[in-house]
Specification:
36% helix, single chain, 4-stranded antiparallel β-sheet, 13 helices, Formiminotransferase-cyclodeaminase, Chain B, domain 1, Alpha-Beta Plaits, 2 domains, alpha+beta, 13 strands
């Protein structure tokens, strides 16, 4: 049985801190660090590692402990929403693992972090005790700056750990630990520096859409919540921002179900909405890892658009066409052996090695 873990740390600029956090994962047997993805403007690093559940949870605990020691949230700034030194830590079931088992491990990890590290924790997604906390955006409301008031309230009381904002919590902030299915994180690059335009495009496409405009009072739905105009892409969450290190604006998206919204469908739709607003998508970057199938489906799609037969193309050719068509290497090299989950698992012989430990 295997679990994948994708913790997000609020540090993307100090590579010595990032190295020390990575070391906590790499020194453990039964777990393999697969990918490290840092962003300067977001000031955030995403690790991806996998292994047997006990080793993965121990690696996550040690990495969160090290992040709590080295990252001071009272001094943190970045473009990405965040609440703590370890902002979020999801467990994803892989080979032989069920979501129910991932939930059990996530809640045990959350309790250990709260009790032994003294860091407040929300359980989110499938591991949530409070249904409102299934949505990560709800857990992040007010971000780090709003924690002092929030965790001391009845509504915002952590599932585990302290609910008093003291000097220690001022440094570590709060983390959200959960269990979820695979999520694809992708940023779409725009030929503009306007964060306002990027945000507008994000609202156009994301499933939640935008609040319905009104000349007078805010319109309400049947549940007395603000009425919304839904976006054009199901199973997506998106925000817009300006990335100083690249000098461009981006639409930053999480695709929560690739069966509902394939990567190439999201790319084409963001292109369409950007064109409607007078800007152009110049490329995309995948944050972390992606399943091989996502690129193969994209390759078939773009081959069909050229009236060519996808059935005649090899796996490598389909992946190459996907990379070129969506310009996944516009900002930095896209190396399939380093970005495709299946290639990493095969190249590291991960399943075979762990099963013999």
């Amino acid at each position: 049985m295997l679990l994948e873990c994708v913790p997000n740390f609020s540090e993307g600029r100090d590579f010595d801190i990032i190295r020390q956090i990575c070391n906590e994962v790499e020194r453990l047997a039964g777990v393999k660090l697969l990918n490290v993805d840092s962003g300067y403007s977001a000031n955030r690093t995403v690790l991806t590692f996998a292994g047997n559940p006990e080793a993965v949870c121990e690696a996550a605990f040690r990495a969160m402990q090290k992040a709590g020691e080295l990252i001071d949230m009272s001094k943190h700034c970045g473009t990405h929403p965040r609440t703590g030194a370890t902002d979020v830590c999801p467990l994803i079931p892989l080979d032989g693992a069920s979501m129910e088992e991932a939930v059990i491990y996530a809640r045990k990890l959350a309790e250990k972090v709260g009790v032994e590290l003294g860091i407040p924790v929300y359980c989110y997604e499938a591991a949530a005790f409070d249904l409102r906390r299934k949505n990560l955006a709800y857990c992040r409301r007010g971000e780090y700056e709003g924690l002092k008031t929030r965790i001391s309230s009845e509504e915002g009381k952590p599932d585990f750990g302290p609910s008093v904002f003291d000097e220690r919590i001022a440094r570590t902030g709060l983390t959200s630990i959960g269990a979820r299915d695979f999520l694809l994180a992708v940023n779409f690059n725009l030929n503009t520096t306007s964060a306002k335009l990027a945000k507008a495009i994000a609202l156009d496409v994301r499933e939640k859409g935008r609040i319905k405009p009104s000349a007078g009072e805010i319109s309400k739905d049947a549940d007395e919540k603000p009425a919304r105009i839904p976006g054009s892409l199901k199973a997506t969450k998106a925000i817009g921002w300006y990335i100083d290190e690249y000098g461009i604006a981006q639409v930053s998206m999480n695709i929560t179900d690739l069966a509902v919204c394939p990567l190439h469908v999201a790319f084409d739709e963001v292109c369409r909405k950007a064109n409607e607003r007078g800007v152009r998508v110049t490329g995309a970057e995948i944050v972390g890892l992606t399943p091989k199938q996502a690129l193969m489906e994209a390759g078939k799609h773009y081959l069909s658009n050229r009236n060519e037969k996808p059935s005649s193309a090899s796996e490598e050719e389909l992946i190459r066409i996907a990379i070129e068509s969506m310009r996944l290497d516009e900002l930095r090299p896209f190396v399939p052996d380093e970005k495709l989950i299946e290639y990493l698992l095969e190249n590291n012989s991960l399943i075979k090695r762990i099963s013999t430990n």
